[in-house]
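User: Can you fold this complex?
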Amino acid sequence: MKDKKNDLTGPIVATIIVAFIMTGMLITFAKNRQPTAQGSKQVFIKVILSEEKTYDFKMYSDAEYLGEALKNSGFIKGEETEFGFYVTEVKGFAADSSKNEWWCITKGGEEVYTGVEQIPINDGDRFEFTLKTY
Amino acid sequence: MMVIDLNLHLKHIKNTSKKTMHISVKEIVLMGMLTAALVTVQVALSFLPNIELISLLIIIYTLVFKWRALFIVYAFIFVEGLIFGFGQWWFTWLYIWPLLFVIAMLFNKVRSFYFWAIVSCIFGLMFGALTAIPVIAISGLQAAKAYWVQGIIFDLVHGIGNFATALFLFHPLNFLINKINKQGGKKIDESNWYR
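Assistant: Here's the predicted assembly.
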């Protein structure tokens, strides 16, 4: 008669059954989960700290304006002023006001005449954030 | 010891003769305190997604107190409704936790820690499916399936968490609850338990 205390048949069989159940659940999840959809507009962002340090990013968004798209994703941070949203940090790089640094926004290399929250975005647009001093 | 006869007139499962079940004042107080412990543990661990000790405690309560544990279960469900609101989730709890009680009652002679860890694990894995049952009636089978599928990862976490907590905590909690149940500090006989 098998010693019940040392008989491992039951625990092993039970573990195998549970492993099968878990595997089945994972397979069901993988086969049935809904695919996510990217934003419909592809936008290219170049962050220029200096001539030597530039970083390129690509993002997808359905937002109408650049500020909305970049604030929602945490790409930019700033302050609300009477003139609108003032960008103080881009992708973790903060402009040092004590050194008179500021972020200049351009679109396709050309000046934009509105704040970041009024810049409309279209599929394929290219923007540059350049760290400048005045 | 003062006894309050609740005139339940419930037939014991194995006893064919008619018998009135008595619940003493001490047992009522004890069940209240154990319900409070259950609620406290649930609220304390609520910040951890799907990691809970409720399953383990309900199993142990059932093994120790037998049918009396059902009072604890429903008192717990009611208090949870008072705390978190009587939403759709609450109506699912009305049958899910008592189901665990029924399972524990069916196998209450089993003295294997590992068995109860597996039971707790499977219960955690099936929790999402059990909560999806009302969705069948409300929105149909496809909606219930989608509801269940989107929560599978949480169910897996729930099952693994239940297994781990039962494996490590069954023995000490079982000893503690048994000790609480016994009077006069009688020595608890654990010689029949095995892994």
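The longest strand of chain A covers residues 41-48. Chain A has two helices and eight strands.
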